[in-house]
Design brief:
The complex is a heterodimer of chains A (115) and B (110).
Chain A: E1 4-7, E2 10-13, E3 19-25, E4 31-38, E5 42-49, E6 56-57, E7 64-68, E8 74-78, E9 87-94, E10 105-106, E11 110-114
Chain B: E1 4-6, E2 11-14, E3 19-25, E4 32-38, E5 45-51, E6 54-58, E7 61-66, E8 71-76, E9 85-92, E10 99-100, E11 104-109
The chains are: A mainly beta (115), B mainly beta (110).
Chain lengths: 115, 110
């Protein structure tokens, strides 16, 4: 039981390049989330998927797109990377809505640098 | 103004000390209050949660919520070097959106 896995662990992009961050969970959770974590800002929600087939914007969705490929997988795409998107990206999943008792389980993160 | 304010620290204490971590918030709709622990270069893990006001104790950890003051606290008794981590408060009014504080870095010296 791996929990939430993310690939890649590290990535360096040049401004304007595109990339997709992959996330998968093996806990049969309905809901999945993408966050970014910046110093002094805490975790901020980019997009979430309440259930398979649905996606919704979070607090900071500009410059990102998501795809809920199936119940297990939720990807985050940067179409044209900008230095402001340098951050650590975390994927999370939960059984249902993110408040207790539905605990969010987080992946190990992807460290992205855009030069 | 951020919805959730948390002092980033760092906070450095000797082993065995009582640690107090705090957050303030502005949204009176929040009713779920959580504390996450994040070790260096790892994802956050849920440590404790409380619903509405009151206290909750789990071993060496106690979480307190004062909704009238919009203030939450996490106390760690008999702190250990293994408690060295970043502690994130988080809040939700239900649904799928959770608001996180910036996190407080804690160092417990042996």
């Amino acid at each position: 039981n791996a929990g939430v896995t993310q690939t890649p662990k590290f990535q360096v992009l040049k401004t304007g390049q595109s990339m997709t961050l992959q996330c998968a969970q093996d806990m049969n959770h309905n809901s999945m989330y993408w966050y970014r974590q910046d110093p002094g800002m805490g975790l901020r929600l980019i997009y979430y998927s309440a259930s398979e087939g649905t996606t919704d914007k979070g607090e900071v969705p500009n410059g990102y797109n998501v795809s809920r490929l199936n119940k297990r997988e939720f990807s985050l795409r940067l179409e044209s990377a900008a230095p402001s998107q340098t951050s650590v990206y975390f994927c999370a999943s939960s059984e249902g809505p993110a408040g207790p008792p539905n605990e969010q389980y987080f992946g190990p993160g992807t460290r992205l640098t855009v030069t | 103004q951020k919805e959730v304010e948390q002092d980033p620290g760092p906070l450095s204490v000797p082993e065995g000390a009582i640690v107090s971590l705090n957050c303030t918030y502005s949204n009176s709709a929040f009713q779920y209050f959580m504390w996450y622990r994040q070790y260096s270069r790892k994802g956050p893990e849920l440590l404790m949660y409380t619903y509405s006001s009151g206290n909750k104790e789990d071993g060496r950890f106690t979480a307190q919520v004062d909704k009238s003051s919009k203030y939450i606290s996490l106390f760690i008794r008999d702190s250990q070097p293994s408690d060295s981590a970043t502690y994130l408060c988080a809040m939700s009014s239900g649904g799928f959106k959770t608001i996180f504080g910036a996190g407080t870095r804690l160092f417990v010296k042996a």
